[in-house]
């Protein structure tokens, strides 16, 4: 039986910039980092305190992700937070722009979106 997500894989265009974003800005911890010479690619395993992970990859000449208008495939990645306004303040103080806060019409929970350095849509969802 499925028990939850182990990780989400993200391919970035600028590995040092994205690694800094996910560690310094979002607070992920590096579990393991490897350069794979045969692929000219980095693979970095990053974790949050609850054990959820992102695998950050770099591949030379990877095509850009179509995101707007919405395309088929993964729509966005949502992070759960306890205090939405506090996390928004932390992100904006580090230069990350967040969209206006909205309320989910079904759950009445508050949320907002922001982007990683490659424009990947990321969401903050208040518990």
Automatic annotation (TrEMBL):
Gene3D superfamilies: 2,3-Dihydroxybiphenyl 1,2-Dioxygenase, domain 1. InterPro entries: Fosfomycin_Res_Enzymes, Glyas_Bleomycin-R_OHBP_Dase, Glyas_Fos-R_dOase_dom, VOC_core, YwkD-like_dom. SUPFAM superfamilies: Glyoxalase/Bleomycin resistance protein/Dihydroxybiphenyl dioxygenase. Keywords: Metal-binding. Residues 4-127 form the VOC domain. GO terms for molecular function: metal ion binding. It comes from the Bacteria. This is VOC domain-containing protein. The lineage of its organism: Bacteria, Pseudomonadati, Pseudomonadota, Gammaproteobacteria, Alteromonadales.
């Amino acid at each position: 039986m499925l028990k939850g997500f182990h990780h989400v894989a993200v391919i970035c265009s600028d590995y040092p910039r994205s690694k800094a974003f996910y560690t310094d800005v979002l607070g992920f911890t590096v579990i393991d980092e490897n350069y794979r010479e045969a692929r000219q690619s980095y693979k970095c395993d990053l974790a949050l305190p609850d054990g959820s992970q992102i695998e950050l990859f770099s591949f030379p000449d990877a095509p850009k992700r179509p995101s707007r208008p919405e395309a088929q495939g993964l729509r966005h990645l949502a992070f759960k937070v306890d205090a939405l306004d506090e996390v928004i303040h932390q992100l904006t103080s580090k230069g990350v722009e967040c969209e206006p806060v909205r309320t989910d019409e079904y759950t009445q929970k508050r949320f907002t979106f922001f982007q990683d350095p490659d424009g990947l849509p990321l969401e903050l969802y208040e518990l």
